[in-house]
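Hey team,

Filing this mostly as a record. A colleague (T.K.) asked me to run one chain through the structure pipeline before their review meeting, and I want the input and output archived in the tracker in case anyone asks later how it was produced. No errors, nothing strange. Just documentation.

Input sequence:
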Amino acid sequence: LHGHNPYRPVYLSHLAALSRTGHAERVFAAPVTVPPVFLAAVPLSLLPYPVAGATFVTLSIGAVVLALRLLGVRDWRCFAVAFASYPMFWGLFLGNLTPFVLLGLAAVWHWRGRVWGPALALAAVISAKLFPWPVCCWLLVTRRFRTLALTVAIGCVSTFAAWALIGFAGLADYPKILSNESTV
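Output structure:
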């Protein structure tokens, strides 16, 4: 919000160096989230921390419920199992993006016969977390070429635009930042 680099490369380098020597205490390192996610979180950053946290958890729960509904799940026991599962429990506890990735992938499946809906959802999911990229292979194998092309275009443009909005701060250091985060 203030034009500062959202990444803390010096701090992460310091923590990684301590980790390598075995002298580091268990610490929670600085976030290394990609700019599209940071920008999506800007409205939450304007709220007091407890309100922002409660809002994020509420949105996360809503994302899981909506994802299951999009997938045609109606049995309350399935909802109970989903919320009791380790990934969802920790996703809600830690405040990570797992519920939103689930919602995006559910949207891709639900609207798989269309072009724009799945492309927007998959581009958003892959821009936030790279690991769902194999869904693009599924689009290729199922001959959904327009959706695949649109996904790639939207993903590239939105990611580039998000980096541009923060002045490409941290872009050159990003691979090293990720490496240090992994070490910590």
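Quick notes for T.K.: The chain has eleven helices and no strands. The two ends are 27 Å apart (CA to CA).
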